[in-house]
Structure formats: structure tokens, C-alpha cells
Amino acid sequence: MKYEHRILMLGFLAGLAGAVTSFFLLWQCDYAVRTRVTLAILIAFAWLIAVLALHSKVVFPLRTLSNLLGALREGDYSLRAKALAWTTRWAN
């Protein structure tokens, strides 16, 4: 299994206990069915957004580092020079 897929799976598993507990408590309360369904959809949507945010925060820097190392291995130093030019431009 690829590392990116493991991050997604672990993110979903990390939120599973909280989501299941929230769904259970939501259905045990005395709310209208329409309110229960709406809140259940909001919980699931928030869970999905949190997992996707975790995935992007973990995978994007690793992918960038991998691309940088690949370019350096091939002898392409232009990416490094661009980053240096960008930092000096904003520093002034």
C-alpha cells in the first residue's frame, strides 16, 4: 500500500471513534429525523474535510521534497536557485 493511501486510511480510522460516538449520541437524542440527518451529514462532511486536510499537510511537503531530491540527483539546480531568488525577493 502506498504511503499516501496509508495516511488517508489512518486519518479515517483516527476519526472513526469520534464519528461513531457522535452518530450514536445524535440518534439517541430526541431530535426530529430531519435534524438528525442534517447533523449526521455535517459530521461526516467535517470528518472528510479533516482527513483531506491532514492528507494534504502530510503528503504535499513530502512530494515536494521528493521532487527536489530527484532534480538534484539529475543535476538540475534551477529549482534551488528559484527558491533562493524567491526568498531574497520577499526579504527586501
Question: How would you characterize this protein structure?
Answer:
The chain is rod-shaped, with a radius of gyration of 21 Å. It is built from three helices and no strands. The model has no long low-confidence stretch (mean pLDDT about 85). Helix content is about 90%, strand content about 0%. It has one domain (about 5-90).
Describe the SSE topology:
Layout: H1 3-28, H2 33-73, H3 78-91
Helix pairs in contact: 1-2
Helix content: over 70%
**Structural class estimated from helices and strands:** mainly alpha
Mean pLDDT equals 84
Give the N-terminus to C-terminus distance in angstroms.
45 Å
Which residue ranges are poorly predicted, with pLDDT under 50 across at least 5 consecutive positions? none
Separate helix tally: 3
Strand content: under 5%
Order of helices and strands: HHH
Number of separate structural domains: 1
Q: What is the number of beta strands?
A: 0
Radius of gyration: 21 Å
The largest sheet, given as strand count, sense and whether it forms a barrel, is: none
Shape: rod-shaped
Short précis:
The chain has 92 residues and is mostly helical. The protein has helices spanning 3-28, 33-73, 78-91.
